[in-house]
Amino acid sequence: MFKIDLHSHSNFSFDARFSPEEMCISAIEKGLSVLALTEHYDVMPAYRDIYYTARQDERHREMMHLKEKYGNKLILLNAIELGQPQTNLQACHKLIHKYNFDFVLASVHNLADGRDIYEIDYQTPEQCFEIMNHYLDEVIKMASLCDYDSVGHIDFPIRKMEKAYGGDVSCYDLRPYEAKIRKILEIIIQRGKALEVNTRGLIVWHKEICPQDWVLELYKEMGGRYITIGSDSHWPDRLGLGCDEAMAKLKRCGFDYVTYYKDRKPVLMEI
Known about the structure:
By secondary structure, this protein is an alpha/beta fold. It is built from eight helices and nine strands. The longest helix is centred in the middle third of the chain and has 21 residues, at 125-145. 44% of the residues are buried.
């Protein structure tokens, strides 16, 4: 079975330290067919990602070099992960039209008030419920307004809520947010975009690939077609994390294909 990873980060992202070439070499060693290096470009109103912006030309040259160097061994996608792009459409538009990206992943990492979801001290289930609702409101805005190919990790805050739930995995449940999740899926489908299956959950407290099966089944039932798989890895040794499990999960939920993107156009690969 082929392996695919459309969500990873090299040292051109502020929170990763391995070079793009190290990531490529590891992907090849692990037998990946497709790799997307989705470097972070996080924005807020009147702000753009200074870390990435300062190196964007260097990064583009490196990607073009690596595409040529490893093109006979790996489909390497020149990609970007836009963080809360709905808050600064102009900056994101300018970036994605400057370079010939193959794939644009859109994610929310900060709430509308600027709070970093990873830095919040999650104390109670009630607080978690409030934050998740605020988060999903931002995902709805993002999915509606922005230029992207796939929506990333739609249950992102869950990763940091272990303390509030005392590590009780049974508390990992998206059902209370079904109406908002349904709205996100509706927008994705209407716009012909993709939904990400993110495997990072396998190494955090709830030990589950996101999103839950019922979300994928609902997406399929509503007419959803495009699915991307990503490890959200910042380390070479975690590339392709849980890819086989993700494929099995998708098959179980009724999907026959996964998607990668070339020149911003979807390519279907049979599971």
